[in-house]
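S1.2 Input.
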Amino acid sequence: MIDIAVLGCGRIGRMHCQNIHDSQNFRLAAIYDIDPDAASAMSTRFGARVAGSVEEVLGDTSLRAILVATFTSSHAQLIEAGVKAGKAVFCEKPVDLDLGRAIRCKMAIEDYQPLVQIGFNRRFDPGHAAARSQFQTGTIGELYQILITSRDPSPPPRSYVQGCGGLFRDMSIHDFDMARYLLDEEPVEIFSMAQALIDKDLEADLGDFDTAMVLLRTANGRQCCINNSRQALYGYDQRIEILGEKGMIQSGNRKPHETTTYTAHSSENASPYLHFFIERYYESFALQLEAFAETIEDLQPRGATLEDGIKALQLAEAANLSLTERRLVHIDEVVC
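S1.3 Output.
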């Protein structure tokens, strides 16, 4: 069993605590949150001790790993501190909202042989992973196009939007990582469009958007289209499609069950999609944690690395540049 501490007991931190508790590879040994009541609640639920500070966690030599689920502006600092304290570090996305700060984080720990995994859980979704495996084994021959759909059921509150870093750094960054994961080569060009169509005052008030389309192209001409929306009234819409010379592979949405009803008034009436990311990607969150355990044991990265986190942030910055200047952007225009 690997003793691990969780830093941050918000919504995502609570889910990670549950997955660690259920894991056969980890023991939830310590919990820390700036809100003592939040940490205490998780301690009562899972039996882990409450740490009095981050420094206490980092100084505990019995802990082999930390999981960082704190606010984004603390991620890079905690990655650096965890690695320098000899811990393996799992950190939620993004590494930082600033690409330069993320790069400095990488430089600060490169001499420590760091074990850092970034929480791009969608790589571990069984459907998405199976789709990638099929095209890699030649099922559809040469890859031509990838379509990624990612739509939330409803917009987040404005208080969240104010601090999230914008649509591309917050929401689309999962899709940028998925694009790289599926394309199997780096995009070299990007073009983005984004508008405030749902909350029509969002751009004027906060400088952000809720609806976007992004096009990516690799050096070999492979294409990827990402479409994002902060509102899909029918549920959490998460799909990928891979087109190749010999056919197409799809990984679709998830429902609570697959029952369909046929009456005089409707055909193929089915249950709605799972409502949000924790339900839709529950398996992937658990599987990425087990991959992290394997990485700790044999020192072979299996999930998204710190470099992957930086590359996804670079694409987000390039998308913002394309949007601002209304033009096709070469990815290397954004220094990484």
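S1.4 Remarks. The chain has two domains: 2-114, 122-274+305-333.
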